[in-house]
Design a protein that fits this description.
The complex is a heterodimer of chains A (182) and B (210). Chain A is mostly helical and 182 residues long. Chain A has helices at 2-18, 35-46, 48-63, 77-80, 84-88, 90-103, 109-137, 141-148, 152-172, and strands at residues 24-25, 31-32. Chain A has a single domain (2-176), classed as Arp2/3 complex 21 kDa subunit ARPC3. A two-stranded antiparallel sheet of chain A has the order 1-2. The longest helix of chain A is centred in the C-terminal third of the chain and has 29 residues, at 109-137. Helices cover 72% and strands 0% of the residues of chain B. The chains are: A mainly alpha (182), B mainly alpha (210). The interface between A and B is large, with 56 and 65 residues. Chain B: This is Energy-coupling factor transporter transmembrane protein EcfT.
Chain lengths: 182, 210
């Protein structure tokens, strides 16, 4: 109980700290922040429920007004803005990432984590983000999706990195991989 | 690691936290009902008035929070103008700016301790599921404690990487950061267990003479 709690708390802190890493611009000029990498990692390492709980802790802290989102954003204003779907979408994103790692037990952990991160952190997250953009901006699905497409290449790279990082963690701290234990 | 809340004891700081959040929720609902630009502009003006009543620092903070939203709003508004519906672009822009500004205002005038007390109050039903209602507040406090720790460790890792290599560290430093975090987690769990653990406190047995 205590150990699960502290893992959730510390992954929440990791997601927050990754928001402080300065974004790296891709060749296309689109900035890529490391923060959603933390969301993918939380799901892949902690599993579906605990990964989503870690994200929930981050979102509570954002709502409390602490500037922990990439670019020093935070506060209730973020939940009222057009990108709210991407923020709230972190919850199902981490959940689905963890679920895939849990279900594909036969697969090598790095590959399962990369796959989960791509499905959860890109497909599910963009679906939520697009719904949010549609709701706030009153746009159709195609236009809303076009707003977020420039970020896909960066997120594909992040999914691959998440797979590699999860494999590294599995090698050195197999006991901490709650998504695969028990 | 500082909260976005402004220090001070203005009229808005002194309002009860439940009232602030209730009013915010009502205002959000009201703003989605408004579809004409004129009432929306009035709402934005009233929100600006709230900021002005708190002084220059509040206005500056509000403008800072609005800046990233303005980019998207400008993009959408110009899109609407191009599509021949400038009025729709105007209402949309006004509504989003007002909503974000109002929510940011509540954040600016609500000190962190008030919010943590609110969380504890909202978490009270957790006791019914055998969980301690202190859990969410404890989680928030621990995350706030560990953000500067992890940040300092990340800077150390980057420094030692630069001492060994001329290349950029890139994301590879996240691996040692995550591994060190897992060790912290074990220590923290031991420390929590040594202090009585996370289970809700059992009712104090009444012993002794009094």
């Amino acid at each position: 109980m205590e150990r699960n709690f502290t893992l959730v708390v510390l992954f929440a802190a990791l997601i927050a700290v990754l928001g402080l890493v300065p974004p790296i611009p891709l060749a296309s000029g689109v900035p890529v922040s490391a923060q959603s990498l933390g969301v993918m990692l939380a799901g892949a390492v902690l599993g579906s429920v605990r990964g989503a709980l870690a994200v929930l802790v981050v979102e509570i802290i954002v709502a409390l007004g602490l500037p922990v989102l990439a670019g020093g954003r935070g506060g209730l204003g973020v939940f009222a803005g057009p990108t709210v779907g991407f923020l709230v979408g972190w919850l199902p994103a981490a959940f689905v990432t963890g679920l895939i790692v849990e279900k594909l037990r036969g697969l090598h952990i790095g590959i399962a984590a990369g796959l989960g991160a791509a499905l959860g952190g890109i497909v599910v997250l963009y679906a939520c983000g697009t719904l949010g953009l549609m709701a706030v901006l009153g746009k159709g699905p195609v236009e809303a999706l076009m707003l977020s497409l420039p970020f896909v290449p960066g997120d594909l790279i992040k999914a691959a990195i998440a797979g590699w990082l999860t494999a590294t963690i599995a090698r050195y701290r197999p006991g901490a991989l709650l998504s695969r234990t028990r | 690691m500082l909260s976005l809340a402004l220090p001070g004891t203005s009229w808005a700081h002194r309002l009860p936290v439940g009232l602030k959040f209730g009013a915010l929720a009502a205002a959000m609902l009201g703003l989605t009902w408004l579809t004409a630009p004129l009432p929306l502009a009035a709402a934005l003006g009233a929100t600006a008035g709230l900021y002005v009543s708190l002084g220059r620092r509040a206005v500056a903070e509000g403008a800072r929070a609005l800046r990233p939203v303005l980019w998207i709003v400008a993009f959408i508004a110009s899109w609407q103008v191009w599509e021949g519906a400038p009025l729709l672009g105007l209402t949309l822009g006004l509504r989003i700016c007002t909503m974000v500004a109002l929510a940011t205002f509540v954040t600016l005038v609500t000190p962190l301790p008030d919010l943590i007390a609110l969380i504890e109050r909202l978490a009270r039903p957790l006791a019914r599921f055998g969980l301690s209602p202190r859990l969410p507040a404890l989680a928030v406090a621990l995350v706030l404690r560990f953000i500067p720790v992890l940040r300092g460790r990340m800077e150390l890792l980057a420094l030692s990487w630069r001492a060994r290599s001329r290349r950029r560290p890139g994301p590879r430093l996240i691996a040692p950061l995550a591994l060190s975090l897992l060790d912290d987690s074990d220590h923290l769990a031991d420390a929590l267990r040594a202090r009585g653990g996370l289970a809700p406190r059992p009712a104090q047995p009444t012993q002794g003479r009094d």
